[in-house]
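Exercise 7 asks you to align residues with tokens for two separate proteins.
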Amino acid sequence: MWGCNYFPYFSWSGSLFPGGILFALILLFTLVLLVCLVLKFIRTIKSDKTQRNRDRYDSFEILKARYARGDISEKEFIKMKNFLLQS
């Protein structure tokens, strides 16, 4: 009775998966967790790049507004603009 495999692919003795269905569930959970972590890491990298570009664009808009108001001279504007484009 104990040695019979009525469900050979999902038995606790492990025909398809070592350890049976419990091991398959743990393996599936681990794979899903790994995929989620990789996707989160990729999204973090992409959002970091877009955030830097957005910050640079916002800084450039502020710089143009300050120059238009006359808060800074043309020389200061060109110097700051070159610094923003360099970064």
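Second protein for Exercise 7:
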Amino acid sequence: MDERRRVEQARSFGSVADVYDRARPTYPDAAVHWMLGEPPRRVLDLGAGTGALTRPLLTAGHVVLAIDPSISMLTHLRRRANSDRVAAVAGAAEQLPLRADAVDAVTVAAAYHWFDEDLALPELARVLRPGGVLAMTWNVRDESVPWVRRLSTVIGHQSELPDPSGTLGLSGRFGPVEWQRFRLYQPVDRAGLIDLVRSRSYVTVLGDAERERLLGRVGTLYDEERGDALGLQMPYVTHCLRALRLDR
């Protein structure tokens, strides 16, 4: 993806904050525990969006500062989180409004690919205390399931997200990267599946007519695949990584 298109898609989420909030899946509690260990920790949830990871972090007992560039996304996060252990502020990964060694952990859920890595990585290391953990996670549709594979032929296969392992290792700021995977199932009805597709950045930037044609095909697929009145289960593989901040 070229830089102009990356920026355009990154900025598109604010226009679909309502849809994003009601459609996107959260993350498994087991994944949160694997990434961060026992609470409480002071956690920076970066690129927090509407709080899909923020809420499990709070449930686990952590104290969270959620940062995202979109005010409209953070409005949903504040409303849904409803906790005195979370603060939400607008900001960007490339210039974090935090002092050095401010947090015990930084989490990034399906957002690292939107960052300018050359600028963001030093910032992540700066705000992490030595020995603190940098953790990243993202959900990938399980296309081994036939109906999901068919969906991907309609809307496009999920792109491989960039693997930050090499950059983290070469930076000299982080220790070895560890990986783990978890399973996640999201119940979706017809409207939920359409909203899930509508919330994708590459769909938000389509022209109105093209977007509605695509969403119509998604609705047709749901009608053909729905086995009973309970709807469908969207299966995901949740990918997680973690690396410790080395002593300076």
